[in-house]
Specification:
Two copies of one chain form a homodimer.
Chain A: H1 6-25, E1 29-30, E2 36-38, H2 39-42, H3 47-53, E3 56-58, E4 69-73, H4 78-87, E5 96-105, E6 117-126, H5 132-147, E7 154-159, H6 160-169, H7 177-185, H8 192-201, H9 205-239, H10 249-270, H11 274-291, E8 299-301, E9 315-320, E10 329-333, E11 348-354, H12 355-364, E12 379-383, H13 389-401, E13 406-408, H14 415-424, E14 429-433, H15 435-440, E15 442-446, E16 453-457, H16 461-495
Parallel strand pairs in A: 1-5, 7-8, 12-13, 12-14
Antiparallel strand pairs in A: 2-4, 3-4, 5-6, 6-11, 7-9, 9-10, 10-11, 15-16
Amino acid sequence: MRDFLPADVRKREYVIGIIKEVYERYGFEPLETPAVENIETLMGKYGEEGNQLIFKILKRGEHEKSGEADLALRYDLTVPLARVVAQYQNELPKFFKRYQIQPVWRADRPARGRFREFYQCDVDVLGSRSMIVEAELISAASDALEALGFNDFTIRVNHRNILTAVLNASNIPPAIHSAVLIGLDKYDKNPGSLTEAMANIGVPYESGLKFLTFLLENVTRFKDLVSRAQEAASRQIADATTVEELDVVDFSRLFMDANESLLDRIAGFTFPSLAAEKAIEDVRKVLQLAENRTKPRRVFLDLTLARGLSYYTGTIMEMNVADLPGSLGGGGRYDNLVGMFSKQSIPACGFSLGLERIITVMNERKMFPLSVVGSPADLMVASFDDESQPVAFTFAAELRAQGLRVLLHPESGNPGKHRVYARDRGIPFMIVIGENERQTGQLILVEPRIRGGQQLPKNEIVSAIRQRLEEKKKEREMEDKTFADAIKQERDKADQ
Amino acid sequence: MRDFLPADVRKREYVIGIIKEVYERYGFEPLETPAVENIETLMGKYGEEGNQLIFKILKRGEHEKSGEADLALRYDLTVPLARVVAQYQNELPKFFKRYQIQPVWRADRPARGRFREFYQCDVDVLGSRSMIVEAELISAASDALEALGFNDFTIRVNHRNILTAVLNASNIPPAIHSAVLIGLDKYDKNPGSLTEAMANIGVPYESGLKFLTFLLENVTRFKDLVSRAQEAASRQIADATTVEELDVVDFSRLFMDANESLLDRIAGFTFPSLAAEKAIEDVRKVLQLAENRTKPRRVFLDLTLARGLSYYTGTIMEMNVADLPGSLGGGGRYDNLVGMFSKQSIPACGFSLGLERIITVMNERKMFPLSVVGSPADLMVASFDDESQPVAFTFAAELRAQGLRVLLHPESGNPGKHRVYARDRGIPFMIVIGENERQTGQLILVEPRIRGGQQLPKNEIVSAIRQRLEEKKKEREMEDKTFADAIKQERDKADQ
């Protein structure tokens, strides 16, 4: 778990702000739940591994000695949502779109972009079985990633019922399906682990071979397509100066064709299975809708996508970039979860973006505009001597009332010392008040970075600062552009 | 601990947004720390009562069985700040202003405006012993409360060394000082509890009498002054239509005179005590600076203010309104806390506003503008039949790309059914796409609240909605004004 110093917080708020704005544009409404849930609410919802990774809270007071836990820290935002929907059924609309951006806690081993405390940015839709829901979730999460500057992510889709049907068609006994899926979930990071897991589970040789053959045949061609598309996208990012210039429509077409042919193969392989037929139809709709967007996407059906959590019942989805193991986000349909907290079952589907993973990649790729981490204030006001402190204090208050962000330095001192502090903190302007200033009402507006200053009467200070800040803002935008150009050149070089 | 449904979240975000903006105006920078701290970081920092109210987290994995805790939930934002400042000394500036708005957890008995999970909105200044710091904190927190619409709060100031000197001058043994202060801390809610506590602690009769006599003499006149000032302020709120019309300058003068005379009495009572002299001088500076603001405040020295937390070393402060037991916020100086985590001691002072208490009072006083809780979207798009779903999906995406907030209903259905949903959700516009719309490109822009609609070609929809939203915004502002007027009339009536 980490501390976030001011520059980090500003980056996080920048990302959260953009994601939130996109979610709001889709009509998702905000929800917040407590960090702490009753332990029974969480246990058994995430599979055996999940149970172990939940942080459990000791009973309080005289019961503390028992060593027992009755509460636990939120493990994801989906189970609390299901509890809320069951609990507030009469207050919430039948069809409910909500977003929730809050931390969750898992006692997992930390890795790059993975922490024990991390933020999930969730969108969920409750009350509909329409595949419009899945398509909208993909669309919203994609829009958010694109608004942040991502252009090379892929969107993988699969369906739990397709996986079940493929396992059945391979004659793998239902009792060990979930164990095979746990192995499959890790296939992406380490393909060998699946075969190993299957051997350990005791999958019959013939069945295992049938399953793996079907899987590998269909996965290989996609892997090739994906890496070609990602290469093309990163080349295009390097060439294009704006997002709008990017055009990956050809790959979109190739993906759609490949998706169609895979759906046909699955239909053949699993025939006759009504559940598979329905699932194939659903996935087809999702893929078509997701393609049928103003901007083409790299959406494809990936049979190796399994998703670890045990509550999924239908479609499952994930978004990935090549330079991060694991995903930027994922989700799926969980039509039975609300029913665990209520007599009434309510269909539901959701998608979650991982804030820390997004920030990790954005930092590494230098995707943050320089202006995100600004200065702590527009102006620093300080006093030369203790007698001037009340005047400096009131002056700072006056400027703030006019909308300036003013840092008042609490210690009296000479302008040279104050200048060093203001400069080191990146504060663009400084005014030091001493006896002279108090007597004459004339102030010296200093730019700490360049020494020297401009003498002005007190009542002209605000407009002078405003004007210079406006100029500086333009300079900063130029700097951001220069910075973006430099990144582009770096990429071009690396490509050669 | 509570769930926050969309309307609640929007209110919370409104309040947090205003507080943040005020804090930023003062040059405070954002910091975030994890919800979970090592248990040793927290234990022993809040006094014995605090130790018991900390939520403790069980060890994980094989150690879970031990029933031992190694982690704990954040109890306030001050101790984590002290840890951060000690830990990142080289990365942080010597003089550091930070704000932090995050939840904390206490296993306390819930009451009105008091919850087990609650948000603190903290500002702290590190690295200076100047009383400018205290005055700035009072000023920032007051500005935040005023920006939210509060005008009748009082600001109470005291100093731990003044309390110690008064206890010494009363011949109360130092060993039982802290026990007396705990009793004093509760005096405000229940004056009888102090005498009872003093009897239980075993304060010698003579000493107790001396202490109580001095205290009561000086407290009574303030209580009277405060209630008169609050009455006047609430009358003025009822009379004034804008905050600017309020003028409580007379009371400000009365407070200042009373403060001066109390400081003199304390000086006399505690003579000769160097610590008291210094503390009196400090408090005098704070009170003078806080008065020396563009807008007068109701700041006064209150000898009954003790503050529960054990880490305070100097000035202590609290802000109160008459209709809430407890405080809207409080703080003080804690010059030794950073030193507990580091060899180097760093002076520090902070103030914390309680989000939930502020919201409780704002709800009861109906201080939220109606427009805070808006509609989930500008427009709802829906489809009449399944064949129109892809068109509706793409259309929604196009409108969002042009900046509208669009809720796409995932189920096909007739316009009457869709209209009911949109109306009940308060969505101002609706478009349903069917075969006719697909063929002609002519859409009907419906206002669900009033039935009927306007036929428009597809490319004119955005500008039509924009125009009507602008008109509606003006209507809403009028509604807010009418609402505010109604509240005023209600108050006037209650006053008669």
